[in-house]
Amino acid sequence: MTERKIWTITDVTDVFGPSAILRSYIEQRDVRAYLQRAAAAVAARYPAAPIACAVDVGCGYGRLTPVLGEFAPRVIGCERETSLLEIARPLQPGAEFVQVESLQALPLDDHIADLAMAFTVLQHMPDAHAEGVLAEIRRILKPGGHVLLCEETDATLEAGDAAHADLGYTRGRPVEWYAARMPGFTLIDTSKRLIEPGYPRPDVGTYMFFGAA
User: Parallel, antiparallel, or unpaired: how do β-strands 206-212 and 185-192 relate?
Assistant: First the structure.
């Protein structure tokens, strides 16, 4: 069996204490603002069918999953690392957390979700794997659904070897790369990912908000 990096809490969030609390607040605030827009759009287009299900793709220990629960009565978090799910499940008993071997093969029905989110997940995959996850996100979304991605978008950023991405890899891809791989969806808006002051890199990614065309 090929060895791979086992992701831990410190990989999901690389700061601690007050810095981590502030980062989570800022990110939850910004995710919430985008999901409010998705909810308003769904309500305007389908007033008799409000948002029913939201999926957190690569949810980790569920740091941002509760925000999805503010907008959907059913929330599903999909994650590869069982150790992270062991943290998430008792903290959020109202959400469904599913262990997956690969985010390229989600054990979910077609057109199950009104909302889907991937937060700093695809940036750790080589191109072909990231494309596979985006294809799965499109598959599980209902007509009129929305997608929120937040990923590194500095095209000069690459750390690790794409051929051995499971050992640890990060790659920035421009917004246009993601938009080109979301056929049937319109890129509605983007904004800079904000985190706590003092982080050593000023550019830490971009929010990309898509709606079905």
Answer: antiparallel
